[in-house]
Amino acid sequence: MNAREVIKALDSFDYYELKKLEKELDNGSFRRRLEKNIKKFEDGKKICVTCGSSLNDKKFSLVIEYRGMKKTAEFCAIDCLEYFLAKMKKVVKID
Ligand SMILES: [Zn+2]
């Protein structure tokens, strides 16, 4: 999910959901969750880039080299790899 999709989801919230989110922002629980999830990546735990589930021995890797940047993305299943590629196809225009 990208920032635009997050904003779109936010626009679909009803009053109750907005007040609940406002409370979570105020008490810091949203920030703590955000930091916890970022730390998971930084700690080097292998997780699927599409669904976030932890990767054991069953995984698929995709090396992406684009405009001088090289990254490896890992997926728990072919479905997650396909979903990622479909999303990437919409976002990235290959010359
Ligand atoms: Zn996955």
Would you summarize the structure shown here?
Helices cover 53% and strands 15% of the residues.
Which terms summarize this structure?
95 residues; alpha+beta; 2 domains; two-stranded antiparallel ribbon; 4 helices; 2 strands; globular; binds zinc ion
Provide the helix percentage.
40-55%
User: How would you describe the oligomerization state of the chains in this entry?
Assistant: single chain
Sum up the overall morphology in one term.
globular
Mean pLDDT: 84
Integer tally of domains = 2
- The SS-based structural class is alpha+beta
Distance between the termini: 24 Å
The count of helical stretches stands at: 4
What is the strand arrangement across the widest sheet? Answer: 1-2
Ligands in the model, by name, code or SMILES, are: zinc ion
List low-pLDDT spans. none
Question: What does the model show?
Answer:
The chain is α+β, with helices and mostly antiparallel strands. The chain is 53% helix and 15% strand. Strands 1-2 form a two-stranded antiparallel sheet. A hairpin with a 2-residue loop joins strand 1 (60-66) and strand 2 (69-75). The structure holds zinc ion.
